[in-house]
Amino acid sequence: EGSRDQKNWLRELKTMNRYAPDERALRSGLELLEHADLRENWTALKIPVLGIYGENDTLVPAAVREDLKKLLPTFSSRLIADTGHAPFLTDAQKVANEILAFLEAHA
């Protein structure tokens, strides 16, 4: 479960019809995720990479971070506390701070 602010934000988002997703786009995206294997591309990266995850994400298991680190030694991950799958929406400032810190460390 996320924080109270996240729950309020999600409740508000659900009431906004203009944000209703296109079902075909969702299905297409899920199909792409189901069949895409980018591990070879991932290992070819020669730059620092940052992954930002929500502590309560039920879609991306914690093991994914560990697997990515094994494939790419320059991979760093940050965990945003008390948030779910989309911390960039629910905790934008925390995500921005993590990105800035990462960029400063790799400048």
Strands ordered across the widest β-sheet: 1-2
Question: Helical percent range?
Answer: 40-55%
Radius of gyration: 16 Å
From the N-terminal CA to the C-terminal CA, the straight-line distance is 35 Å
Poorly predicted ranges: none
Please report the total strand number as a whole number: 2
Order of helices and strands: HHHEHEHH
Arithmetic mean pLDDT = 85
Count every helix, treating DSSP H or I runs of 4 or more residues as helices. Answer: 6
Q: Sum up the overall morphology in one term.
A: globular
How is the main sheet built?
2 strands, parallel
Structural class: mainly alpha
Please indicate the percent range of residues in DSSP E strands (runs of 2 or more): 5-15%
Structure, explained:
The chain is mostly helical and 107 residues long. It is 54% helix and 11% strand. The protein has six helices and two strands; from the N terminus they run H-H-H-E-H-E-H-H. It has helices at 4-14, 23-35, 39-44, 62-71, 87-90, 92-105, and strands spanning 49-54, 75-80. Strands 1-2 form a two-stranded parallel sheet. Strand 1 (49-54), helix 4 (62-71) and strand 2 form a beta-alpha-beta unit. The radius of gyration is 16 Å and the shape is globular.
